[in-house]
């Protein structure tokens, strides 16, 4: 899950092909910070690809200012680290700068036979406890692009309606 750099690259490439003030966080391991500006459905998104290594996570908060939407990518096949993903997600969402940001969770790797479905990930991430936050979970497969447009449509509509 979190060590699959090529999978994350596919997400960034596919999103930047179709997408322009959104903040993407992932627990995937990469050492750098990359930014792309793209447009999707008349909304300009600034897509930040920030590293997920433990030592980099404290730096995430420096990118939260003016964030209207957050995409959080979860490896649906990695049951061992879903608790870590939940803890990081809730830690971020408690940051004051993200209080008004909508949340899109991409439940990735749905093509794998043992992947948790969206309902199970919703439960394990504690999404129902986010009563004051507008959120949505979308099953996805980064390699095929399945589910990406649906998630981005939800995100675009909810940012545009703010």
TrEMBL record:
Its main location: Golgi. GTP binds at residues 52, 108-111. One of its GO terms (biological process) is vesicle-mediated transport. GO terms for molecular function: GTP binding; GTPase activity; phospholipase activator activity. Keywords: ER-Golgi transport, Golgi apparatus, GTP-binding, Lipoprotein, Myristate, Nucleotide-binding, Protein transport, Transport. GO terms for cellular component: Golgi apparatus. Gene3D superfamilies: P-loop containing nucleotide triphosphate hydrolases. The keyword DNA-binding does not apply. The keyword Transport applies. It is found in: Golgi apparatus. PANTHER family: ADP RIBOSYLATION FACTOR-RELATED. Belongs to the small GTPase superfamily. Arf family. This is ADP-ribosylation factor.
């Amino acid at each position: 899950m979190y060590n699959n750099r090529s999978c994350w690259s596919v997400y960034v490439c596919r999103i930047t092909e179709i997408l322009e003030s959104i903040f993407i966080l992932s627990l995937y391991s990469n050492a750098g910070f990359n930014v792309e500006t793209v447009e999707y459905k008349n909304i300009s998104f600034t897509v930040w690809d920030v590293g997920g290594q433990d030592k980099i996570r404290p730096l995430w908060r420096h990118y939260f200012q003016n964030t209207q939407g957050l995409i959080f990518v979860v490896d649906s096949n990695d049951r061992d680290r879903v608790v870590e993903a939940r803890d990081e997600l809730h830690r971020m969402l408690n940051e004051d700068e993200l209080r008004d940001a909508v949340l899109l969770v991409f439940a990735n790797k749905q093509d794998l036979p043992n992947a948790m479905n969206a309902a199970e990930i919703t439960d394990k991430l504690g999404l129902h406890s986010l009563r004051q936050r507008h959120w949505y979970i979308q099953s996805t497969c980064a390699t095929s692009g399945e589910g990406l447009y649906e998630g981005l449509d939800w995100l675009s509509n909810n940012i545009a309606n703010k």
